[in-house]
Design goal:
The structure holds 2 protein chains of 2 kinds. By secondary structure, chain A is an alpha+beta fold. In chain A, strands 1-2 form a two-stranded antiparallel ribbon. In chain A, 49% of the residues lie in helices and 13% in strands. Chain A contains 5 helices and 2 strands; from the N terminus they run αααββαα. The two termini of chain B are 35 Å apart. The chains are: A alpha+beta, B alpha/beta. The structure holds adenosine-5'-triphosphate and magnesium ion. The site of adenosine-5'-triphosphate (ATP) has 20 residues of chain B, from helix 1, strand 7 and helix 9.
Chain lengths: 116, 284
Amino acid sequence: MPSLIDRLLGRTRQSSAHTAKERLQFILVHDRIDLPPERLNEMKEKILAVISEFVDVAIDDVDIALRQNDRNSNMIVAEIPFAHSLLSDEERDENDDMELPLLTEKDDDDDDQPTP
Amino acid sequence: MGASNTAQSGTPGNNKRRARVLTVTSGKGGVGKTTTTANLGVAFARLGYRVVVMDADIGLRNLDVVMGLENRIVYDLVDVVEGRCKLRQAMIKHKQFPDLYLIPAAQTRDKTAVSPSNMVEITQKLRDEFDFIVIDSPAGIERGFRNALAPADEVLIVTNPEVSAVRDADRIVGLIEAANRGPAQLILNRVKMDMIRRGEMLSPKDVTDILAIQIIGIVPDDESVVPSSNSGIPVAMNDKSKAGIAFTNIARRLTGEKVPFSVLENSGGFFSRIASIFGGGNAN
Ligand SMILES: Nc1ncnc2c1ncn2[C@@H]1O[C@H](COP(=O)(O)OP(=O)(O)OP(=O)(O)O)[C@@H](O)[C@H]1O
Ligand SMILES: [Mg+2]
């Protein structure tokens, strides 16, 4: 959505050049390392499958992406957080204090207390 | 040649030459390689340099037509390679510029008739007599491209401000680096300032951001280009053509002259706006 200033200056169609640039940047990251988007997805799935054999992963929060600083400096940047169920007992207690809905058994008692 | 000083190439009027070989290439077809080669040839000649332009597009010869020399061809590059004539005999002198020569491609052969080492040999024979050898590469990344790249000291990549052309240019940048012929320099051809202003076309800055190579020329899309190739008179011979001025400025930059993009300001104010896109008016 173009800003008011853009619209006043008649720059509402700025987007097509901008779109071109964004598309090119996406295309070239994949071209330069010779890994098409579809193969990257395949790779992500395999990485997650391997990791999931050992630990529980918060699948929805996983972020695996290609990053390019310049033509010859490419990397895979991955952020793969653990799922909540991996938390230690102490952490569970802390979570309990924070009223996260992880531990339900004694929740009823606790919940009643603040509102006598 | 009785030269007394150890001159570099790029110094007009020197007796002892050591030509620089410039290869003009692009990846994508039809972006303006042949137009650029012809105009650089003319521009260098007008600046007083001795120059050979070579058509490496075997089987699809064009440079002769764009330069208006098609009627003078007797021998071509393949005749030289296959020993049917001496190199001299395949060099066609330009009508107006006695220091500008064309070596035409063969029209009826395919690219395998010439090898990369043939190209190196031929340019070696010319180096001592000329300041610049400009090679027009065919489109693509096959044999013809490798032929054109083999003797290159410097590579000029021509592209247009369009997604597919820039993508192919990027591929070429990578191949040139891999072949140790880099860093290549960029010529952005067929730029339409009014479209850039409306946000409908990639700007020179967009393209250089993406390709991350040095830009050496910005050539406007110019209606004088087609009629000039109709008549075989490159726009660099016409001081009023904006594209001609842009090509001449590329030649001047290649000789080491500092030509800020803002100096290109001509009647329409085109280049001052280009300069502002670079945020200061000097991209070299
Ligand atoms: N700056 C310009 N303004 C207008 N027209 C241009 C410009 N540059 C090139 N052209 C036109 O674009 C067409 C293609 O140019 P040219 O033949 O130089 O491209 P090429 O890259 O050599 O093509 P090929 O890959 O087929 O060898 C020609 O008709 C030419 O006149
Ligand atoms: Mg051509």
